[in-house]
Each structure stands twice: as structure tokens, then as C-alpha cells.
Amino acid sequence: MSLRHRRRWYLAVLCLALPVIGTASDIPDTIGQRMQPCMVCHGAEGRATTQGFFPRIAGKPAAYLYNQLVAFREGRRSQPTMAYFVDHMTDAYLEEIARYFAALDLPYPPPSAANAAPARLARGRTLAREGDGALGVPACAACHGAALTGALPAIPGLLGLPRDYLQLQFGAWRVGVRHALAPDCMGEIVSHMTPQDLSDVAAWLSSQPVPTNAPPTAKLTRPLPLSCGSDPP
Predict the structure, then answer these.
(1) pTM here?
(2) What's 3-102's CATH class?
(3) How far is it, in rounded angstroms, from Cα 155 to Cα 152?
């Protein structure tokens, strides 16, 4: 086990111990209290932190959050601390966790300043809004909603996420480290994109403000441009 993984494992053990510090009368047995260990990495109330590799989970669609928790448990996503947490959790408990964070309706902070050349941001915007037919790449908005804030029941928003996190996930799909339920539409899409394109769209998405009062859309125009196992018709 590498030093980095040992540190994450020690953090996980410490986090699991946090809810039991004190007496039973001091600590209410609520889902909010039991989710306190999640806040160490994902920030207070799941809003994310300044550490760019941990995403916001508050307000994401419940079905999406549930799918990701199952993916960590079953090894389709690789992250030692997350796998440690969910290894022995039941489907019912993962659903409860997903519903808890999905119900948190909290404001987003302003986006980080775009650290990319105008031409690169323009390319990122084109990919997000229009796609690239020559590459066989649909627009992000075709699946993630016109406002890019996600779609029910299981498609996440792309705004309000750190650039580092977006690039890490795109790269994980591209090299086969991350997988979704088959057919894996994101794995298919990123396989047609260059590393520069992935960097450009991550830069543009992370620099956009999240619209006020813009929850995941309740309905998308169907069919989606690709079949997605994690969001079946």
C-alpha cells in the first residue's frame, strides 16, 4: 500500500470514529449525523472544499449518487477511501445516503477564474453546447440538460465542479479506470476526444456560474444521443 493510500485509509478510520466520540445522549442518531464523515472530504453539507479533487455531492440527483456509491462498492470506480466506506453497506442504506444528499438545496459559490487561453475556452464551450459531429461527440447539454445542471433521474450537473475533478474523471474514463453501467456512454464519448479537448471542456465548465434556482431538469428530450446504462429510457 502506497503512502498516499495509507494516509487515506487512516483518514477513513478516523472519520468512522468521529460519530461515536462522546456519549449516546450527546449525539442524535440521524442520517445527517451519520454522514458527518463524508464532510471531511466533500465539505460541510457536501458542498465541496477548496481541494479540487473532491466533488460537491449536495443536490445531485439521488439516482446518480446511488449509482456512484454502488460503483465504488463494486469496483467500477476506483478510490480506496470511498471503497472502504461503502464496502459492507447495503443497497437500502446507499439509497438512504443518496436521498439525504440529493435533498440538500444549497447555494453554490462563484466559479474559479478560468485559467485558459480564450481559444481553448471557446473550444470547450463549443464541445459543451454543440458537440463535434466530425468526432462523433454529442454536446454535453444533450444529456446533462440545457442549463448543464443535470437531469432526473440519474444524470448529474456539470457546473459547480472543480476543473481538477472534471479532468480526473474524463481521464479515468479515457484510460479505462472508471466505468459506468453498460453501455458506458461517457466511456464511449471520451474515447473520441483528444486530451486537449477534455482539458478545454473541463476549463470551460469549471469557469461557469451555476444558475440560481436551477435544479436538475425533470425531463430531457428523448432519446439521448447514446444509450446509457446508468440512465435507461
Answers:
(1) 0.84
(2) mainly alpha
(3) 6
